[in-house]
């Protein structure tokens, strides 16, 4: 745990008692803060109280004595409308912050020697975070990985000189971290997402920009107009910027993916060869890898150390994760693809695709994926989006509405077994949220893996993407 001492002896209101909220409350208490916590969910309050966290209904509190409201990232701050607790804090003129802000303040005040690498972007940030953490660990560095990728940031090991914190940051967390000052800030890409929480794309992009604007070194993607504009603004303001891209043609300098390798654009020098990597396939992973290389270089790793770490990276569960083979058919779990843009890499990478898609649809549907429809042997549609996706695919790809994931896996596996293609692929890449049928994308991915493993004649892959 990282005990937060910056509010020692002060009263702090905390709202939201999920995983990160619970860890934040305990970290504040450990640092001497007088915490009053609450959640709209009575069961969450009960569990927190059992852990020794003081609980009181913040609707009925006198807010004049609070120094801050610490808000869980899932609680609406601005859109579609501010949560009632946000309104109360604003009325009392109390700052509203989150766990990533508490980490930033504690690091500045007590251990600035600890390094912080912060990663954001619409897509690819979890893979990039995991990849950076893996490379650093493989090189023998003292590293902690957390944030939006899973483990709450204040639940990580205490701040210490030489320790490197690799933190994935969602737009919600950045919105609650006004003074975030990472040693290395990464912004991979920007496409429309979470607009229900941020109002419009302009505001969403501005929030993401804060992470790199506050960093000593900004690593910024050059593959969309929003990120390109952000990089240009930062450079004009005198920031140190490293540009990265999934296509060498997009850059005049920086690190880019080029024909299966990461190259230094200035001189064409080979930095890392990904052509035979079992997991880091496709141009999108080229962008992720270029970003990871830039970050690891910035904290002192040599290119040889980086290449060693890349070679053993097992991939991220639920993100283009090869899980099994049956005959010539490969089964791929891409459950983390919760919007159309996130599904594009899988459809771009594979051929003869037996595509399992659907769930709770995001704004825009799957129209943006039309260039990849000719690669789809058949689409197996599930959940709330099934009818709409079927209509979009009409005339472009064969479809079948399966209802459930289990039915989709069985039908896709049977069809793939009859394919004449050299390597047919059954891929779950839903382009949708999971919440119509599953609690989260992890549960959906786990259900896919279970359904695949229940098939006859399946050979599972190991964590490195090779057959067991």
Question: Can you tell me about this structure?
Answer:
The protein is an alpha/beta fold and 468 residues long. It has helices at residues 19-30, 42-50, 84-91, 99-110, 125-138, 171-175, 195-198, 201-213, 225-236, 282-298, 303-311, 340-349, 386-393, 405-417, 441-453; strands at residues 11-15, 34-38, 66-71, 95-97, 115-120, 143-147, 164-168, 184-187, 217-221, 240-245, 255-258, 261-264, 270-273, 321-326, 329-333, 353-358, 360-361, 376-382, 399-403, 425-428, 432-433, 459-460. A nine-stranded mixed beta sheet has the order 6-7-5-8-9-10-11-12-13, sandwiched between helices. A seven-stranded mixed beta sheet has the order 19-18-16-20-15-14-22, sandwiched between helices. It has a four-stranded parallel beta sheet with strand order 2-1-3-4, with helices on both faces. Helix 3 (84-91) links the parallel strand 3 and strand 4 (95-97). Helix 5 packs across helix 10, helix 8 crosses helix 9 and helix 14 crosses helix 15. The chain starts with 10 loop residues before the first strand and ends in an 8-residue tail after the last strand. The model is unreliable at 463-468 (pLDDT under 50).
